[in-house]
Amino acid sequence: GGNRRHHRSPARANRLSMELTVMTMYNLGLALHLTGLRTGRSTLIAKACQLYFRAYSILMNRDLPRSDPLINLVLSCTVNLASAFGHLLDRSSTRHWRSVFLHVYTWAIS
Description:
The protein starts with 9 loop residues before the first helix and ends with a helix. The chain is an all-alpha fold. The longest helix is centred in the first third of the chain and has 30 residues, at 10-39. It contains 4 helices and no strands. It is flat and about 50 Å long.
């Protein structure tokens, strides 16, 4: 018996740190996005795009399997990027992110 401490593997701690980072970025982006829509301030929507994109980039730098629950966050980032760029009247970026969403979604369900 005695003092047995739980040792977390570095990989597990790294995963948790990454999850907290991307979820925080996504949620801050969502708050800015919604506030921008409510107030009409496009600068807030542009900042939301930056946060969504940073979260998306971190997730895509991981080799996530199709079954990973974080795939839902990847999809959320892409659909929100398409929506935000739509509100910013950036048609080519809107089309791009819709296409990325469909690509990821198709891959995830195949």
